[in-house]
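Researcher: For the annotation table, I need C-alpha cells for Nucleotidyltransferase. Please keep the output clean. Sequence:
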Amino acid sequence: MTLPLPSYFTDFLNDIRPTPAQRADMIDGHTRLRERLESDTQLKTGFVSMFLQGSYRRHTAVRPKDGKRADVDLIVVTRMKESEFTPTEAMACFKPFLEKHYKGKYRQQGRSFGIEMSTVEMDLVITAAPSESEAGVYSSLSESEDDLHLDEDETQPLVKTALDGLPQWKTEPLRIPDRDLGRWQDTHPLVQLSWTNQKNARCSGHYVNVVKALKWWRLVHASELPDRPKSYPLEHLIGDCCPDGISSVAEGVVRTLEQFSQRYAFYAACNQVPYSPDRGVDQNVLARIDGKDFAKFHAQVVAASKTARNAFEAPDAQTAAPLWRELFGDKFPQAPDGGPSSKKDGFTPHQGGPGVVGPGRFA
Ligand SMILES: Nc1ncnc2c1ncn2[C@@H]1O[C@H](COP(=O)(O)OP(=O)(O)OP(=O)(O)O)[C@@H](O)[C@H]1O
Ligand SMILES: [Mg+2]
C-alpha cells in the first residue's frame, strides 16, 4: 500500500515556495522597471515589450536557501536589429538607463544584467528585434496581466500564455546576446512555458511541484552533489523523465528519479552527458555539464530513487516521513509519535508546531 501523505507535501511545498515578501518585491521591481523603460526617452522607441520568463513564470521556482536573493528573469524585447548591433553594443545601449535608475545595484553578466532588489534579483535579458508580425505577439504580451500572476498557490492552474491557441509557426525564437561568445543566440522562453503548461496538465497539475521538490532536494544535498546540473538544465531533465499521468507529487518524485536512473545509466557509466534539445530550439540544454559531474549526479539520483520508493511504499506516516525528510530535509513535516495505530483514514494526524503538519489536514 502506498501512502502519498498529500497534506505533508502541501505543507512542504508551502515552505519551499518563494515567500510573500519576495513576491511583493518582485512585482514591485518588475512593475517599476517596465514603467521606467516605457518612459525612457532614449529607449522607448526601441522598446517592444518586457515579460517574465524563467522559473518564476513557469511556477518552478523554489525559495533560495541561506539568505540568498531569489532570481527573477525578465526578457526585454527591442527593435534592435542584430545585423546592426553586436551583443556588446546592444547591451551597452541599456547602460545609461541602468546608471540612471539602478546605479550601484546592477552588474553586467554574460547574457544579462543583474539588478539587486531587497529580497530578489532581477535578471534582465535583452533580445534583438523580432519580425514585425512577431513584434505584435510580443507587444501584446507586455499588456498581459499574466505577468503579475506569480507562484502564489500550487493549486491554481498555470497561466495561459500568448502561445496557447496560436499555431506554432506564429512565433519564432528570440535572439539574445551572448557577450562572452560575441554572438546572438536563439532562445524560446514562450515555448518552454507552453511546454511546461501542457506537461503540467498531463500530470494533473503535479508536474511543477515535482520540479520544485527535486530542485529543493538538490539544494538540501548540495554538498554531496556537483554544481551542475541545476536550475533550468535540471528542470529540463526532470521534464524529460517525469511520466505523464502521475496522480500525486510523491508518485512523480519517485517515478522521475527512477526514470532518470534507468534512462541515463549508460551515459553515466561512460561519463557522458546526453544531448537534450531545448523546447522550441534545437540547442543542447545540457551543453555546459561535465561528463564526470553527470555521472556523480546520476549516482546520487540512483540512491535518492531508492529512498523515495521506500518512502512512497511505507505502510504508515511514521515510516514514510523520516525517509522523505532524508530527501527533502527538515522543511518536510515530521510524523507524530504513536506508530501505525494512530493512523486515521490512512494518514496520521499531527499536533502541529514547527516542521510538522497541523491537525485535521489529512484528506
Ligand atoms: N541551458 C539552458 N538552455 C535553455 N534555456 C536556458 C538555459 N539556461 C537558462 N535558460 C533559460 O533562462 C531562464 C533563466 O535562467 P535561470 O538560470 O535563472 O534558470 P531558472 O529556470 O529561472 O531557475 P532558477 O529557479 O534557478 O532561477 C531559464 O528559465 C530558461 O528559460
Ligand atoms: Mg531564474
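Researcher: And a one-line annotation?
Model: The domain at 18-187 is CATH 3.30.460.10 (Beta Polymerase; domain 2).
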